[in-house]
Specification:
The protein has 170 residues and is of the alpha+beta class. The protein has five helices and seven strands; from the N terminus they run E-H-H-E-E-E-H-E-H-E-E-H.
Length: 170
Amino acid sequence: MEFLQITSPEDYRVQEIFESYCTSFPEDERRDWDKLLPLFTHPNVKIISVSHEAQNIGYLIIWGLSGYTFVEHFEVFLQFRSQKLGSHITGYLFENYPKIILEIEPDHLGDDAKRRYSFYQRNGFHLIDEMYVQPSYGEGKKPLNLWLLANYSPENLEKIKDEIYDVVYH
């Protein structure tokens, strides 16, 4: 499995990533193209293309914050799901980023949400906040009640949430 940082929206993989991003994540859970563009050169952000057996299978959008990594988006493309590739990707994350925080939909929102929560639990994450609200991604988009998960036990959750709000969702 290869993990390659994409530093330009001109990269040939970006179109496939953006199309899947728009299909897989509801409007309120994603950035519009004009808000995604600056992330390619943002000093705290890595947009990583994941390939396996010479095929692009997914991507990560991660933020290096103070003492931890925030995974904003993690997707295995639809045609590659249920092949344990997501577990390999979490293995990569754990090897390279020891303290990780991410958001997910609460598991009571449906079968997909239950499946995702179970996946993250099996792969070393645990629930750290059930009352987390993801700020709006912009005009016409709603804030969302989500859960925060981590692979460690953060000491000051309020400070972490403030940093996520200020840096990621500014």
